[in-house]
From TrEMBL:
<keyword id="KW-0560">Oxidoreductase</keyword>
<dbReference type="InterPro" id="IPR029759">
    <property type="entry name" value="GPX_AS"/>
</dbReference>
<comment type="similarity">
    <text>Belongs to the glutathione peroxidase family.</text>
</comment>
<dbReference type="Pfam" id="PF00255">
    <property type="entry name" value="GSHPx"/>
</dbReference>
<dbReference type="InterPro" id="IPR000889">
    <property type="entry name" value="Glutathione_peroxidase"/>
</dbReference>
<keyword id="KW-0575">Peroxidase</keyword>
<protein>
    <recommendedName>
        <fullName>Glutathione peroxidase</fullName>
    </recommendedName>
</protein>
<dbReference type="InterPro" id="IPR036249">
    <property type="entry name" value="Thioredoxin-like_sf"/>
</dbReference>
<dbReference type="GO" id="GO:0004601">
    <property type="term" value="F:peroxidase activity"/>
</dbReference>
<dbReference type="InterPro" id="IPR029760">
    <property type="entry name" value="GPX_CS"/>
</dbReference>
Length: 178
């Protein structure tokens, strides 16, 4: 399987097939407007500006499963992203990334790249350990701004936890774009 076999819901409520991204490098990120990692929107947009002409796509998926940090409606989220960070990459409709109602795309992403989340994640690990200990040792998305890097073939290359910034993964993305 690949991400190209999935479809998602846009912020306008329309179904959108991910096969439109075949042949492109894709970074999929679960996002939130009221998170300590929210400023990553700026870095994600900068990365998108640098790479979109070379077949980079960044796809944002708002999620309110972590500390109620994405309480807005889809329309409010779109306005927030544009007004505060000038986001031009697609930000889709709000979804769940974990649990029985998880979007099938994220169930697939988690299975393909379960992550290597442990004490090396520093303060984020301590936070998750204190607030979501049941998530430790699982493939669950641990927090907002977890990133899944997908190759041109639609297969998941790697997962990056929330504390890993877009700047820190730029070289790996560049390698896929070349």
């Amino acid at each position: 399987m690949t991400i190209h076999e999935y479809s998602v819901i846009t912020a306008d409520g329309e179904r959108h097939s991910l096969d439109t991204y075949a042949g492109r490098v894709v970074l999929i990120v679960n996002v939130a407007s009221k998170c300590g990692f929210t400023p990553q929107y700026e870095s994600l947009e900068a990365l998108y500006d640098k790479g979109r002409d070379r077949s980079l796509e960044i796809l944002g998926f708002p999620c309110n499963q972590f500390g109620d940090q994405e309480p807005g409606t889809d329309a409010e989220i779109q306005e927030f992203c544009l007004a505060n960070y000038g986001v031009t990459f697609p930000v889709f409709g709000k979804i769940e990334v974990n649990g029985p109602d998880a979007d099938p795309l994220f169930t697939y992403l988690r299975a393909e790249a379960p992550g290597d989340f442990g004490p090396a994640a520093g303060p984020l690990y301590e936070h998750v350990k204190a607030t979501r200990p049941e998530a430790l040792g699982t493939d669950e998305v641990k927090w907002n701004f977890t990133k899944f890097l997908v190759g041109r073939d639609g297969k998941v290359v790697r997962r990056f936890e929330s504390s890993v910034t877009p700047e820190q993964i730029e070289a790996e993305i560049e390698d896929l774009l070349d």
